[in-house]
Amino acid sequence: MDWQAIWLSVRLAASTTVILSALGLPIAYWLTFSPRRWKFLVEALVALPLVLPPTVLGFYLLLAMGPRSPLGALYAKLTGGMLPFSFQGLLVASVLYSFPFTVQPVAAAFAGVDRKLLEASWCLGVSRAATFRRVIVPLSLPGIATGAILSFAHTLGEFGVVLMVGGNIAGVTRTVSISIYDSVQGLNYGAAAATSLFLLCVSFSVLALTYALGRRVWTVWPIN
Amino acid sequence: MADQLICQCRKRLSKAFEVEADLRIPLDRAPVTVLFGPSGSGKTTLLRMLAGLERPDAGSIVFRETAWFDGARALDLPPQQRRAGFLFQDYALFPHLTVAENVSYAAPRETAGKLLDAFGLAELAGSKPRAISGGQQQRVALARALAAAPALLLLDEPLSALDAATRSRTRHELRRMLLASGVPSIVVTHDRMEAVALGDWMAVMVDGRIRQSGPVQEVFGRPADLQVAESVGVENVLSAEIVGRESGLLLLRVSGPAGEARIQCVDSGETGPVFACIRAEDVAITREMHQVSSARNRLAGRVRSVIGEGALARVDLDCGFPLVALVTAQSAGELGLREGERVSAVVKATAVHLAAHTGA
Questions:
Q1: B48-63: per-residue pLDDT in tens?
Q2: Nearest CA to CA, how far is B148 from chain A (Å)?
Q3: ipTM
């Protein structure tokens, strides 16, 4: 079994989950409670990685991160490094790729909080931000946990985007799924089988845990 | 007149329905105001506009000389700054917090502790809202609202989530708590018994408009128009015509499908076709058929039915037009009222209230 790749994938998945939790909660809040008419566009954008082939996403990311793009040039200026074929580049790609897996369950949980509770809090003189922290988040914990678990699991198993953006550098960008692909290419079926079984067990445990938390995994967009 | 709540605002809810409320409550004279009206008349919307939860399309809301909303100046204070405590129909207690945490949600622990004691909730302090009864939940919601030191309390059908037995017991308790709090309150209800039991002042809302407001007794006794009369539950609304006028009294001809009668009432300046509104409680029944006094209206009729309603009996009469009387069960028994019997209905001239026929 390729423990180096497993450890890299776990680090990538954990970092992605932390970043997505920080970014996903405010975006889910905005999507749930904003009265803007054009928010369906943002909804579609967030959900895009669900249907877009990973190679397409990877291709655009590669272009955007490249040293000749303004974004890539800015990153090079700030850090002296490059995003493609680096762990940081993988992280950016993973965050974008797993976005809907955090935002959708969280938005569904937010929408499920009785609006009267928020209004009751406002009428008691408590600000919107404090109401979010003291009422919405505690009542949405199962949904937030679902989002985090799904993002973690999804990142752990991603392949296409990683290959496009990160390539296959041992210890830097060679994640579990790439390691499996590599083993099969090298006709090393034993290693591929062991790592695959490991990934299968992890995925099943994660989904079982998610369902045990009492939420549906494939929540539809909240209706409001 | 600084101590007033003045609300003049408009909000369109659908193509066919607009709430257009013109409400003025003298807070010094009206500790508890009842906002009364049938379901779907816009009461809750008005209450939510007062709380800042719903934005009016236009108009203004001024509470004790502080503008809460002014459409012309694009001023709209958020609920947090209005300090209007809101009691939701189902109380909206925070389900993840205990009773004590709910009450101290927006208040210092000390204030919350005092309120828990005052409301008899100290023993339930550690319980979650779903583990306590509806009546207790109501007290928690009220304590939570009062803990935040509100300037005004808004209660949306506060008794409707309770079962019938608890409801009648809670009415007086709620009024006592509201008076004790010293915070002016507005209570939405569609139940006339609740209105009488809770309110000092009453505003009647029909089809999105405030049709009448004033002291509760006055609104019940003298409905301004037919729709108010119907919604506050005046049982007898009779179609009548003014046929004479003398020494401060009006002579009316009341006509129905099977006959007509003449009754007198106080001249309040009406002309033309009117509705004569008579509360069932103001109709007395007697077996004496002869004329006693000219100031009394005596209508001959037949008993159509006698239905017991607890200590009261509702007597339906046919005087050529239907007339409902509400007498004590005791006097109904003493009179030996039976179906088909001839009796006289007596109505004081001062108990007949005229409502203009137009616009009904």
A1: 999 999 999 999 999 9
A2: 6
A3: 0.79
- CA distance linking residue A128 with residue A176, whole number of Å: 42
DSSP B64: T
Same domain for B216 and B310, yes or no, is: no
Query: Is B305 a member of any domain?
Result: yes
Q: Does A121 sit within 8 Å of B83, measured CB to CB?
A: no
B54 with B11: CB under 8 angstroms?
yes
Enumerate the β-bridge partners of residue B20.
Answer: B10, B209
**Of B203, B229, B255, at which residue does a domain stop?**
B229
A43 φ/ψ angles, rounded to the nearest 5 degrees: -60, -45
- Averaged confidence pLDDT in chain A: 88
For chain A, say whether B17 makes contact (Cβ under 8 Å).
no
- As given in the structure block, the two tokens for residue A65 are 């991160």
Is the Cβ of A124 closer than 8 Å to some Cβ of chain B?
yes
Task: Report yes or no on B127 lying in a domain.
Answer: no
Q: Which residues pair with B209 in a beta bridge?
A: B20, B206
Pinpoint the alpha helices (H) of chain A: 3-33, 39-51, 54-65, 70-79, 87-111, 115-123, 128-131, 137-139, 141-157, 160-166, 176-185, 189-212
Three-class DSSP category at B324: strand
How many helices (DSSP H) and strands (DSSP E) are in chain B?
10, 21
The single-letter DSSP state of residue B33 is E
pLDDT in tens, A48-68: 998 999 999 999 998 988 888
| A215 confidence band (pLDDT: 50, 70, 90) | low
- Which domain-ending residue is among B170, B196, B229? B229
Q: How far apart are the first and last CA of chain B?
A: 34
Count of structural domains within chain B: 2
pLDDT of residue B91: 94
> What are the residue ranges in chain B where pLDDT is below 50?
295, 358-360
**Domain housing B308:** 234-356
Give the pairing of strands B75-76 and B236-246: unpaired
Q: How far apart are CA B321 and CA B283, in angstroms?
A: 14
| CATH fourth-level superfamily of A3-113+141-212 | MetI-like (1.10.3720.10)
- Which chain A residues are closer than 8 Å to B105 by Cβ? 121, 124, 126, 134
| Alpha carbon distance B96, B109 (integer Å) | 18
Decide: pTM greater than 0.80: no
Separation between Cα atoms, residue B178 and residue B111, nearest integer Å = 17
Residue in the block written with tokens 């009773």: B99
Using an 8 Å Cβ cutoff, are A162 and A84 in contact? no
